[in-house]
Design a protein that fits this description.
Shape: globular
Structural class: alpha+beta
Helix content: 10-25%
Distance between the termini: 28 Å
Largest sheet: 6 strands, antiparallel
Strand content: 35-45%
Oligomer: single chain
Length: about 140
């Protein structure tokens, strides 16, 4: 994973660190970074006009297949964090996101997340709905 500068085209979700997010030492508990980036992906979908509950009722869900993450610096109580989400690669049934967490310009957490599109009732991979695939392609700048 390369430590990148803020991406102007990235979706940004701003979150405040609350007491419930921290451990006994007052720093963000490591697993909460995964929750933060999950929210980032959810809000990216929402800005594209897709509600995950509605997608599930239509037989479409997104499931994490893999995560590669680096914890670089701690976030602490009351920090204001920016969760950056970018589409890094795209297939017919999966999408990879580059995500990071920043405090101002300081990179705290960096991750690559591979997401599979599945049928939620069968748990089997399916093709991503065309409209979502096209929107993700546009975000990557690859739609021709």
């Amino acid at each position: 994973m390369k430590h990148r500068a803020p991406a102007p085209s990235a979706h940004i979700l701003v979150l405040r660190v609350y007491y419930e997010d921290t451990d006994a030492a007052g720093i963000v508990y490591y697993a909460n970074y995964l929750r933060f980036i999950e929210r980032g992906r959810t809000e990216l979908l929402r800005t594209l006009g897709h509600d995950q509950g509605a997608l599930m009722r239509e037989g479409v869900a997104f499931a994490v297949r893999s995560v590669s993450a680096e914890f670089l610096k701690p976030a602490i109580l009351d920090d204001l964090l920016a969760i950056e989400t970018r589409v890094s690669s795209l297939g017919r049934a999966q999408v990879c996101f580059s995500q990071c967490v920043r405090r101002e310009s300081e990179l705290l957490f960096d991750a690559e997340v591979r997401i599979a599109c599945i049928d939620p009732t069968r748990g089997k991979p399916i093709r991503m709905p065309r409209v979502i695939h096209e929107q993700m392609s546009i975000l990557m700048g690859t739609l021709q």
